[in-house]
Amino acid sequence: MPEYCVTGGTGFIAAYLIKSLLLKGHIVRTTVRDPVSFADNAEKVGFLWELEGAKERLKILKADLLVEGSFDDAIQGVDGVFHTASPVLVPYDDNIQASFILLNPFYTLATSFLFRLSCINRGN
């Protein structure tokens, strides 16, 4: 069964992607900045565990766009990545740097597909 990574797992778009992938029977890895604090705050990720198939096929991993190498485990060996994570309210240069941090492992990994949502210019 194909396995996918969806970055920014607590986001609006990511939640629908995760739901759709799980309903199709796929294994899904998703990333959040701090899963430990989310464990104490069920409203942040609790809805993900309630999705059909989540208990069997969903993995929530820690990754931060501003920390180089933090996505390595999340994307290692997956069939595709849906990149929906975005640093919130950060300068344009940090957003670009975060994209490089996420994409850098793809130069060394043999990942079949990369689905990337463009950054939205918010006037920064």
From TrEMBL:
Transmembrane segments: none annotated. The keyword NADP applies. InterPro entries: Epimerase_deHydtase, NAD(P)-bd_dom_sf, NAD(P)_dehydrat-like. Keywords: NADP, Oxidoreductase. It comes from the Eukaryota. Residues 5-87 form the NAD-dependent epimerase/dehydratase domain. One of its GO terms (molecular function) is oxidoreductase activity, acting on the CH-OH group of donors, NAD or NADP as acceptor. PANTHER family: NAD DEPENDENT EPIMERASE/DEHYDRATASE (PTHR10366), TETRAKETIDE ALPHA-PYRONE REDUCTASE 2 (PTHR10366:SF503). This is NAD-dependent epimerase/dehydratase domain-containing protein. It comes from Solanum verrucosum. The lineage of its organism: Eukaryota, Viridiplantae, Streptophyta, Embryophyta, Tracheophyta.
